[in-house]
Specification:
Elements (H helix, E strand, L loop, with lengths): L2 H7 L9 E7 L6 H4 E7 L7 E11 L1 H8 L10 E2 L4 E8 L11 E4 L11 E5 L3 E4 L5 H5 L4 H10 L9 E5 L4 H13 L2 E6 L2 H9 L4 E4 L4 H9 L4 E6 L4 H7 L3 E9 L12 H5 L4 E4 L2 H7 L2 H17 L6 E5 L4 H9 L6 E4 L2
Parallel strand pairs: 9-10, 9-12, 10-11, 12-13, 13-14, 15-16
Antiparallel strand pairs: 1-2, 1-4, 3-5, 3-7, 3-16, 5-6, 6-8
Length: 348
């Protein structure tokens, strides 16, 4: 039987045939629903420092779509395995890996080198962290990227205390949701800036203290809403320098703007007066660098805290829909749509 025949006859959910089904990128650019295909290959054994994970759930993230388009920090070498994060069970380990991991549920830390949109994936043991069995596996699959980004934004740039104010653009994004939840838990006040009234209602429900819709008079409405308050830091995800210039006036002298995304594709900048005369700094955050540079002990501690917060209901991402791998085109189109109200996940 040819590989092409296998792709059309072996279901992606089949875990017992000695075959691995996975989604691979075959060309960079274009519509990802057309440049990704379902591939079936024989299972292979792990290397001495690797683990084999039977994937239970894996989300489609915006970064996955940027990766497929060739617009991400990691450039795909096609055919490239797709999927950055996920959760599943360890089914075998290499000779230098603790065999106690076998049978454990783990989350897979993103590298964009080992695909998670698959029935099985093989990753270095250092790129998995064991988690409890009883916590929702779909929430576990979404734990390694956005909650970690939110945690770092709130903890690694400015020393924040209860009662401080932080600003957040792209507040209805996945990162924004987690920032709002973690800030609320820490007693930190949040200014959430969004693009429309629907997003405003969403972030109010998530606990934002002050919600402002972008548009005419943004600067004045932010200032009025904060009253005598000043932002210690602004977390910025749009890349829209015009919007930034309106909000940064509310940042305290010597404060910071931290860029974690640019949904517009623009390069964010600060007005010259704020940069020079008020000492506002502009810095960037990239999750892969954080995972690479954070000591293993801290990674395990931070993710263990996330698991507890998910279990308590403090952290939770909405799931709009789930799909098997064989329905990947429908899933990818859904993930790119404007009307969805949560994450799209593959359940291999």
């Amino acid at each position: 039987m040819s590989t092409t025949q296998l792709q059309t006859t072996i279901p992606a959910s089949n875990r017992t045939t000695g075959l691995t089904s996975r989604l691979v990128l075959t060309a960079v650019g274009g519509n990802v629903a057309d440049t990704v295909s379902l591939d079936v290959t024989p299972d292979r054994e792990p290397g001495i420092e690797e683990v084999v994970v039977a994937v239970e759930a894996a989300p489609i993230n915006g970064a996955d779509l940027l990766f497929a388009a060739g617009w991400f920090a990691v450039y795909p070498q096609v055919p490239a395995a797709m999927g950055a994060e996920g959760a599943g069970r360890v089914v075998s380990v290499g000779s230098d890996v603790d065999p106690a991991l076998i049978g454990r549920r783990v989350i897979i830390l993103p590298t964009f080198r080992y695909g998670t949109w698959a029935t099985r994936t093989i990753v270095p043991a250092r790129n998995v962290i064991a988690v409890p069995d009883h916590v929702d596996v779909q929430q576990m699959a979404m734990l390694s990227v956005n909650p970690a980004a939110a945690h770092s934004l709130l903890n690694d740039f400015v020393s924040l205390r209860s009662g401080d104010w932080v600003g957040l653009t792209l507040a209805n994004s996945a990162v924004g949701h987690y920032v709002l939840a973690l800030a609320r838990r820490a007693g930190i006040n949040t200014l959430a800036v969004v693009r429309n009234d629907d997003a405003a209602a969403e972030v109010r429900q998530l606990g934002a203290d002050l919600v402002v819709v972008d548009g005419n008079g943004l600067k004045e409405r932010v200032t009025e809403g904060l009253r005598d308050g000043r932002l210690r830091v602004l977390f910025e995800g749009t890349g829209d320098s015009g919007q930034i210039s309106q909000i940064v006036t509310a940042v305290e002298d010597g404060g910071s703007v931290i860029t974690f995304a640019s949904v517009t594709g623009q390069v964010p900048s600060l007005p010259l007066g704020d940069l020079i005369y008020r000492g506002i700094t502009l810095r960037g955050f990239f999750i892969l660098n954080w995972i690479r540079d954070t000591p293993r002990e801290r990674l395990e501690r931070v993710y263990a805290e996330f698991v507890e917060l998910v279990d308590e209901g403090v952290l939770r991402a909405n799931v709009a829909a789930t799909y098997p791998l064989e329905h990947y085109q429908k899933a990818l189109r859904h993930a790119q749509g404007d009307a969805r109200n949560g994450k799209i996940l593959f359940l291999p």
